[in-house]
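[recover] target loaded
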């Protein structure tokens, strides 16, 4: 099933505002929030974010590398070389939840991630979530 999710989805934008508001589940503070969004947008280009690139993003938002690491480590996936391949639901690793944005093929950890990610990325996305094959429901989230 293909669905286009636009950045103009009011409910998704409202959910992002609530989650990122002070004290919200995704409140990483002003600098941390900029770090997370910029890292997600870099990953949305379809390539892993190398450690040097992550450090540069941290510098751009005014954070030290160790501060950025403390924010990103719990919400990221890494490959064997230490590159970021997933962050807060957006991933380069294949899952049942395909997510195409910026002409790049990515995936999401959960079907629900496909609803808020376009708003965070500021882009329209094409989503395809595979139905279960054997009559059993696959786990809804992958990390």
């Amino acid at each position: 099933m293909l669905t286009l999710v636009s950045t103009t989805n009011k409910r998704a934008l409202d959910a992002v505002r609530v989650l990122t508001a002070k004290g919200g589940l995704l409140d990483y503070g002003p600098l941390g929030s900029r770090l997370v969004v910029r890292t997600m947008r870099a990953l949305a280009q379809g390539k892993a974010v190398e450690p040097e690139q992550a450090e540069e993003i941290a510098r751009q938002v005014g954070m030290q590398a160790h501060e950025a690491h403390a924010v990103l480590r719990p919400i990221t996936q890494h490959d064997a070389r230490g590159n970021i391949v997933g962050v807060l639901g957006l991933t380069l690793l294949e899952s049942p939840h395909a997510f195409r944005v910026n002409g790049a093929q990515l995936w999401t950890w959960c079907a629900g991630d496909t609803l808020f990610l376009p708003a965070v990325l500021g882009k329209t996305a094409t989503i395809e979530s595979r139905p279960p094959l054997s009559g059993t429901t696959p786990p809804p989230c992958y990390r």
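[recover] notes: Residues 107 and 130 are 11 Å apart (CA to CA).
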